[in-house]
Design brief:
single chain; 399 residues; alpha/beta; Rossmann fold; eight-stranded mixed sheet
């Protein structure tokens, strides 16, 4: 049974009666707490390239290359360095449920041209598909990469694949988030990252049934061993804050150089691996050296496409329900730690997401990364001035 069918069956009120009310109250309080004032931060460039609707693979790759080369001068890359590309392969479903194979191939080719000696593409898929514990593994991220087309594209471009669970439970190390985080323990990160000098993050632009959206900051979950993912989902009242804080571990602060998203297709509802796929007349590639600035623009693009998508798709129960994320997160905890952990877990509360400033993940990121980036949008001639102005308005810090 897939996630959508299961959640439809589980979303009744009777299913909710079992969850502890005191934890629900704490989670509700967390979700409705008074927002802190937003402080301005340093300027951050975000580059855009346009992609026509239903583009060729070569057009997608050319747009990705152009945007990446505009976003960074690659001075951080020395000849022979190892670069780790982190896509999002939460399922075996095709782009935009997972990262675009064409985008990953374009980045692999570009890095090799720039002098990279080794390019590794790796991830560990969502717990619905891959169950990982000290006792062993069921499911396969590699097979999901193959199903989505990403494995073939990455290998053909010259990369090697690495699926974290294949190295075993002990092939992870503990990395601490920044002081003052909501994490109770360090985060268990894959050993392969120690072999890389640089990381390029390649998320997608998508809705997420639990977190609201899944962009660059949320992509960090794919690194984590399942005991870390258990804490993340079990203490659901601070899931959004922990999402942002997970990006402050030493490895990512020291090695992540660039964030690039191809978004000519947007998973506009439900998510993370199913929902309505919307294709605007002009798609975008979004690239920045700042993951926070990237996510501000990527979220603005998601919201803009949700605004203009067909009215018939805007009232999907699975997308708008407040019950579905509550049941869904308990279900994820049960997959990660069993029914006992699920019954002891906090209840997930998903708030509205109508503007960039509604996003609790980004709001926490502003606090820990030095304020709201002053987003400086720079676009190629394939992006209309009207669209650039629209995204600029949506990401400008309110007075």
């Amino acid at each position: 049974m897939n996630r959508r069918k299961f959640l439809k069956l589980a979303a009744g009120a009777s299913a909710m009666a079992a969850w502890p009310l005191d934890r629900e109250a704490r989670a509700s309080s967390q979700a409705t707490r008074e927002r802190k004032p937003l402080a301005p931060g340093p300027k951050a460039n975000v580059f855009l390239s346009g992609v026509n609707k239903d583009p060729s693979e070569q057009a997608q790759k050319s747009a990705v290359r152009a945007c990446a080369e505009a976003a960074t001068d690659f001075s951080w890359l020395s000849r022979g360095d190892t670069v780790f590309i982190k896509p999002v392969v939460n399922s075996g479903n095709p782009y935009p449920s997972t990262t675009s194979p064409a985008a990953v191939a374009a980045m692999v080719e570009l890095l090799i041209e720039k002098g990279a000696g080794r390019v590794i593409v790796g991830d560990m898929s969502g717990v619905e598909h891959v169950r990982f514990s000290p006792a062993g593994v069921s499911g396969s991220s590699r097979k999901l990469m193959e199903a989505s087309g990403l494995a073939e594209a990455a290998k053909a471009a010259g990369a090697e694949l690495y699926c974290f669970e294949e190295a075993g439970w002990d092939a992870f190390y503990e990395d601490a988030p920044a002081e003052g985080s909501h994490w109770k323990k360090g985060l268990m990160m894959p050993d392969i990252l120690k072999e890389a000098q640089h990381i390029v993050l390649m998320p997608r632009c998508a809705r997420h049934v639990l977190a609201g959206s899944t962009l660059g900051l949320k992509a960090a979950v794919g690194y984590w061993r399942h005991d870390t993912r258990l804490e993340y989902h079990r203490e659901a009242g601070t899931l959004h804050e922990k999402t942002a804080e997970g990006n402050t571990v030493h490895t990512l602060l020291a090695k992540q150089r660039l964030v690039v998203t191809l978004a000519d297709k947007i998973l506009a509802t439900f998510g993370p691996d199913k929902g309505y796929v919307f294709q605007p007349e002009t798609g975008l590639v979004i690239a920045s050296e700042s993951v926070v600035a990237h996510d501000m623009v990527s979220l603005a693009w998601l919201l803009e496409n949700r605004r203009i998508m067909p009215e018939s798709e805007k009232n999907d129960f699975m997308d708008t329900s407040r019950i579905v994320p509550r049941v869904g997160n308990h279900m994820v905890v049960s997959w990660l730690g069993g029914l006992g952990q699920a019954f002891a877990s906090e209840t997930m509360v998903k708030g509205p997401l109508d503007a960039v400033w509604d996003d609790p993940v980004l709001n926490r990121a502003y606090e820990i990364f030095g304020g709201v980036p002053g987003v400086a949008l720079k676009a190629g001639d394939t992006v209309s001035e009207e669209l650039k102005i629209r995204l600029d308005e949506m990401t400008k810090l309110p007075a």
